[in-house]
């Protein structure tokens, strides 16, 4: 099997909408997670329902038939539709080319999956690219359950479903309502016949769930049989939605138009085979299929995958909206064309959640309650208010955010509601019961795995930058309004005190990860990188270079930055095993892609004025070359949350993580900025 097939088969494609809904699967369309499927709907509060797992697809020609689909079972994969897969493409949306065995130009079927931007609706398109009339028999596989759950074996056998089939003008629509939970699903077939046909797919196996220590066996059910013929060059469309489909043709046109301006792979088959040559036009040699300019368009679209409900989905399929992740991604959206209004809506939404000086760490979703278990989310927020203001440059905006920032800083400085305080030296100190209050937030049985109590280095660098942002807002307001406005003296003095106190973190060429009392906790972690990559710098360029050089030697990988040096006895090589085992590795060695952003930012700062622009571009390009090449060769559709801490590095956690994509997008934009000589 070629490298391209190896890469696409173990990576995942992703489709999303602006509500938080998604479709997710692998490059061979064998569902490995319980989250894999054609439609997972979401409401405005990120409550998600897994509705459609896939489709049983049988193709018939002259009395012979084969399947396109495959199911995992504990002892086999059946049917073996994956053997008929000639080639998959993960972007700009999932595309699959199938053939009979052996692969031949006579029988070629193109399957494409797309999602509506504004509704929970998935489109599946079939096109006959071969030489013969083909008959299709389809059985949609329904789950209709909250997306973190499975239908336990046997539970669907006697469950009542209310089904309906209608044939309005020029298409057939069908619907089903599950009686025990009242979940509804709607579908439409543009051309063909829909008849009732009920049976259960028992004991479908999800190996990636079992590998993670979760339940991994569940049932699916079909309630309809769909049939149609496709002539050479003809397409047919199947829609799934959580709302009734009134006009299938208009909806299909809208969904296809969403992707119309996105580049397709260089070897995408646009037309049926002629002269027995189509298969020979495909790239089997793992060459670039998205040239650089096209890759940048795909990357921008991948970043927008996470926009939903005036917020950012932190990662698919596990997460909803997280304040910290949202702020990091919003920083990338500021560089994205025509997204200022989106950025402002997101920041205003979090303003409405402001409570006792903090914005939420996580907004409620899928039964999880809103919590305020972080300080850094709010500090990132203040910096983003300043950055947005630099682009808006209106007196009204500056006046408004100055008042808001003063409220937030006052709430932090005189906090009585959250388990942190401001020390005598101006540093923010997390109390022992708030040791999870940074981005390294995992707890087991209520105890922080990577305790950050005391004064964490990146929290206090953010604190310094938030105070600097406030002062810059006041100056910008004065310049724009031509009126005097004096920044609060208490905050200005505090800023200088924090800058001076930050010097305590430096020792032996690196920054302490935190200070407990007066004791430096010297752990080689990436938090020093985050601290030194922020807009306002409290340290000399020489210190920046020292930290960069050590972090490059001990923390850098092609997939991101390790969360702990391999020289540390607590370092975990692999993110693997039960929830507890994975939690122990999560911030103790696992590689995080989002940290490439601050790492590249630190590199630029450390060598600005020392290395030439060309040398800096070359270095930054080398740091992201693995991800860039993976996109350009079509290996990946997004960027995962984490990777194993030691080679070989495999993607783990969420397969599509917002701040991972945002980091790559930001770095690529900065490289373009340097190349253009600005």
Polypeptide structure, described:
The chain is of the alpha+beta class. Strands 1, 2, 3, 4, 5, 12, 16 and 17 form an 8-stranded antiparallel beta sheet that branches. An 8-stranded antiparallel beta sheet has the order 8-9-10-11-18-15-14-13, with helices on one face. It has a 5-stranded antiparallel beta sheet with strand order 31-32-33-34-35. Helix 8 (376-392) packs parallel to helix 10 (457-481). It is elongated. The model has no long low-confidence stretch (mean pLDDT 96).
What is this structure, in a nutshell?
This protein is an alpha+beta fold and 678 residues long.
For this entry, give a set of tags.
678 residues, eight-stranded antiparallel beta sheet, 36 strands
């Amino acid at each position: 099997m070629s490298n391209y097939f190896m890469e696409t088969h173990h990576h995942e494609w992703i489709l999303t909408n602006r509500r938080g809904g998604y479709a997710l699967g692998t490059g061979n369309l064998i569902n490995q997670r319980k989250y894999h499927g054609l439609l997972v709907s979401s409401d405005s509060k990120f409550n998600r329902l897994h509705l459609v797992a896939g489709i049983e697809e049988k193709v018939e020609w002259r009395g012979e038939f084969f399947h396109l689909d495959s199911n995992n079972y504990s002892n086999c994969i059946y049917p073996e539709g994956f053997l008929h897969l000639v080639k998959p493409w993960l972007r700009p949306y999932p595309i699959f080319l199938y053939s009979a065995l052996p692969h031949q130009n006579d029988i070629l079927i193109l399957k494409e999956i797309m999602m509506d931007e504004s509704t929970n609706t998935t489109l599946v398109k079939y096109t006959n690219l071969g030489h013969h009339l083909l008959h299709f028999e389809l059985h949609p596989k329904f789950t209709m359950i909250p997306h973190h759950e499975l239908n336990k074996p046997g539970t669907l056998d006697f469950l009542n479903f209310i089904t309906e089939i209608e044939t309005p003008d020029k298409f057939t629509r069908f619907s089903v309502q599950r009686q025990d939970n009242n979940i509804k699903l709607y579908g439409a077939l543009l051309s063909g016949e829909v008849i009732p046909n009920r049976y259960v797919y028992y004991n479908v196996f999800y190996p990636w769930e079992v590998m993670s220590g979760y339940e991994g066996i569940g049932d699916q059910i079909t309630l309809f049989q769909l049939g149609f013929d496709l002539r050479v060059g003809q397409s047919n469309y199947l829609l799934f939605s959580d709302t009734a489909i009134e006009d299938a043709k208009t909806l299909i046109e809208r969904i296809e138009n969403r992707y119309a301006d996105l580049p397709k792979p260089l070897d995408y088959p646009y037309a049926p085979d002629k002269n027995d040559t189509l298969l020979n036009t495909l790239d089997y040699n793992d060459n670039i299929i998205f040239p650089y300019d096209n890759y940048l368009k795909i990357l921008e679209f991948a970043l927008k995958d996470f926009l939903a409900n005036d917020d950012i989905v932190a990662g698919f399929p596990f997460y909803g909206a997280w304040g910290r992740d949202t702020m990091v991604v919003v920083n990338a959206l500021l560089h994205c064309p025509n997204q200022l209004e989106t950025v402002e809506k997101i920041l205003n939404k979090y303003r409405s959640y402001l409570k006792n000086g903090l914005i939420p760490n996580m907004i409620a979703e899928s039964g999880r309650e809103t919590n305020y278990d972080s300080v850094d989310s709010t500090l990132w927020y203040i910096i983003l208010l300043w950055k947005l203001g630099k682009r808006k440059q209106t007196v009204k905006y500056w006046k408004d955010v100055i008042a808001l920032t003063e409220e937030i800083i006052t709430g932090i400085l005189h906090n009585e509601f959250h388990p942190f305080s401001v020390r005598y030296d101006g540093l923010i100190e997390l109390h022992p019961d708030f040791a999870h209050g940074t981005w390294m937030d995992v707890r087991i049985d209520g105890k922080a795995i990577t305790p950050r109590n005391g004064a964490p280095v990146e929290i206090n660098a953010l604190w310094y930058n938030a105070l600097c942002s406030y002062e810059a807002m006041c100056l910008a307001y004065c310049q724009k309004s031509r009126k005097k406005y004096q920044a609060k003296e208490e905050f200005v003095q505090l800023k200088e005190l924090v800058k001076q106190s930050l010097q305590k973190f430096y020792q032996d060429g690196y920054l302490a990860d935190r200070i407990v009392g007066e004791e430096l906790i010297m752990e080689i972690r990436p938090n020093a990188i985050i601290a030194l990559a922020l807009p306002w710098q409290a340290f000399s360029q020489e210190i920046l270079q020292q930290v960069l050089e050590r972090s490059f030697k001990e923390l850098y990988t092609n997939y991101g930055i390790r969360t702990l040096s391999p020289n540390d006895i607590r370092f975990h090589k692999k993110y693997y095993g039960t929830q507890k085992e994975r939690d122990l590795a999560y911030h103790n060695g696992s590689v995080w892609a989002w940290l490439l952003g601050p790492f590249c930012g630190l590199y630029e700062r450390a060598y600005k004025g020392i290395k030439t622009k060309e040398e800096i571009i070359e270095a930054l390009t080398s740091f992201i070359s693995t991800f860039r090449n993976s996109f350009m060769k079509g290996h990946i559709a997004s960027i995962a949350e984490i990777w194993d801490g030691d080679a070989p590095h495999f993607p783990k956690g969420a397969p599509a993580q917002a701040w991972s994509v945002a980091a790559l997008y930001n770095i690529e934009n900065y490289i373009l900025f340097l190349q253009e000589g600005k």
